[in-house]
Amino acid sequence: MSFYDCLKLTEEPLIELKNWIDEANTNGAPLPHAMNLATVDKTGRPSARMVLMKSLSDEGLVFFTDYSSQKGRHLAENSFSSCTFWWPSTDKQIRIDGECSKVPDLDSDRYFESRPLGSQISAIISRQSSEIQTYEELVQDSKKFKEKNNEVKLNRPERWGGYLLRPFRIEFWENQSNRLHKRKLYQLDSHKWKKSLLSP
Ligand SMILES: Cc1cc2nc3c(=O)[nH]c(=O)nc-3n(C[C@H](O)[C@H](O)[C@H](O)COP(=O)(O)O)c2cc1C
Questions:
Q1: Residues 6+ apart with CB under 8 A from 32
Q2: DSSP one-letter code for 177
Q3: How many CB atoms lie under 10 A from the CB of residue 172?
Q4: Is any ligand 1 atom within 6 A of the Cβ of residue 70?
Q5: For ligand 1, is residue 83 a contact (CB within 6 Å)?
Q6: Is 51's C-beta closer than 6 angstroms to any atom of ligand 1?
Q7: Strand locations in 41-91, DSSP E?
Q8: Which atom of ligand 1 is nearest to the CA of 31?
Q9: Cβ pair 171, 98 in contact under 8 A
Q10: CA within 20 to 30 Å of 93's CA: 40, 135, 168, 180, which one?
Q11: What is the share, in percent, of the chain residues with pLDDT greater than 90?
């Protein structure tokens, strides 16, 4: 089962990222492409949450969200972000620092169209991270929207779409005995990935 699209992949650390996700998948990780994404607000305060990586290429990692959500507002003010993957079954961590930018509208349209109807409706009726009065109202809004728009092809709301996280630092961490963990760091230097090892 493929959890994400894999596009052109020739760069060593991105290939390794794919291999570790695939290995976690083979080892039974339920959502091997789930990553914890941290953003910062304009005062420099960080906030982190899980998102799903939906495509991977030499350019970076793509995830989809509501641009008007808290993370979207953060990224509009500070495009730098950081994410981590960790899988219990392999006990490996990947840590990525990079810069986010919105993907082209067409890519967001294409992904939106591929989503199940319920997810499309949720993206339309839910203004992510805004306060709501009751959960029941939200469910009702979703039901009403579905009834009203039966058989209609739904369009992606403009405030919903993808971000490309372009990494400039990728660290691979592997658990080893006696806390002598392996840490391998790739850093982008003049468009080339430079490799080094870090002490645990
Ligand atoms: C495993 C997992 C995967 C998630 N994937 C996404 C995702 O791909 N996109 C998204 O917007 N929210 C996703 N969420 C919800 C976010 O963690 C978060 O609640 C939401 O995006 C609002 O975050 P914000 O208020 O910081 O913007 C996921 C949550 C979990 C637990």
A1: 3, 21, 22, 24, 25, 85, 87
A2: G
A3: 19
A4: yes
A5: no
A6: yes
A7: 46-57, 60-66, 80-87
A8: 1
A9: no
A10: 40
A11: 98
Helix (H, G, I), strand (E, B) or coil at 123: helix
**Alpha carbon of 50 to ligand 1 centroid (Å):** 5
Q: Cα of 198 to ligand 1 centre, how many Å?
A: 31
Going by pLDDT thresholds of 50, 70 and 90, the confidence category of residue 150 is: confident
Atom of ligand 1 nearest to the CA of 65: 11
Q: How far is CA 151 from the centre of its chain?
A: 31
Q: What is the pLDDT of residues 110-138, one digit of tens each?
A: 999 999 999 999 999 999 999 999 999 99
User: What distance in Å separates the CA atoms of residue 200 and residue 179, rounded to the nearest whole number?
Assistant: 7
| CATH fold for the domain made of 5-114+160-198 | Pnp Oxidase; Chain A (2.30.110)
Question: Please, how many CA atoms are within 13 Å of residue 172, restricted to the half-sphere of its CB?
Answer: 16
Exposure pattern of 54-74 as b/e (b: 16+ CB <10 Å)?
bbbbebbbbbbbbbbbbbbeb
Q: Is the pLDDT of residue 1 over 70?
A: no
**Is residue 27 predicted with pLDDT exceeding 70?**
yes
DSSP 157: P
Is residue 53 over pLDDT 80?
A: yes
CB of 50 shorter than 6 A to ligand 1: yes
Residue 165 bridge partners (DSSP): 61, 100
